[in-house]
Structure prediction request, 326 residues.
Amino acid sequence: MLAVAVIGVVFAYVLPKIASYGKAWSVAETLSDSWILVLCGVTLLNVLSNVPPWMAALPGIGFVKAARVALASNALSIVAPGGIAVGAAAQVKLLRSWGLRGSSVALATTLTNVLGQLVTFGFPVLAIGALSAEGGHNSSLDAVAFVGVAAFVVIASGFAYVLWNAKAANQIGYAIAGGVTWTKKRFRGSPVRWGGPEFVHFRAEALQLLRRRWAVLTISMLASQLAVFLVLIVTLRALGVSGSQVTIVEAFASWSLIRALGKIPITPGGFGVEEIALTGALIGFGAHNGQAVSATLIYRFLTVFPSIAIGIAAATTFRVGRQPTA
Prediction:
């Protein structure tokens, strides 16, 4: 109900106060046919960019299966409250139903999600540095960058500690297993049947995969994330927001701000929160009100709704290739 309230207030009251939808539409009507084709192209590129990280994290899965799991889980993470957790659960469910080993599934799911979070929270810090080099400043980005640094350190140090040595992995495994068992008992669930040894095995497999494919994993994840930014910068230029109004660095700063804010589970998919943050950032950097609202709405439409539609279509293929249970 909080999410519905936030979304309703943003779209019914706040955005129209910044610029009326009629004004935003008049800006959108200036799009030429050639720009529309370019926008369609970068949107398709963005959707497909979700696939390579899974092919890197799960060697041998193939493009089709990687696309199905990436797109289906991405759609669920957008529309469901607590999206990241729901998306990860969908990834595990799909991959296990196709007969893939549990340890490989756990490793691929962990690596893609952890690396994705590291990149997302690392970008605001990079944006601060780039803005400072340009002589610019944004107080909102400063706050997000501070949170991003904290999140980055927590995620990176936790993952690194597991990989540091087998003893650490064993201790963490038993600690997490105990916590999960305690939680399940509160809901009359049965104790988990895994613990420290499974984490030790996970550590060994993770190190082996990272030694062989860390470069491919990192590059594919960076490309996947930056494909989303490409949609924004093309949208801005297509709507006439010139480089003198909003530079590439300023656009990157605005985008990294909303990506980090979108990870806070206030509303599904960051609806409402990301629109206000992006619109305000673009106006702060020099875009006109109508341009900022129009660019925000078009960017959000192109990065959200195609992913949802294609992801739902991918989810309907859930039983294709499913292994029969004994």
Q: What stands out?
A: Residues 103 and 282 are 44 Å apart (CA to CA). The chain has one domain: 20-315. The radius of gyration is 21 Å.
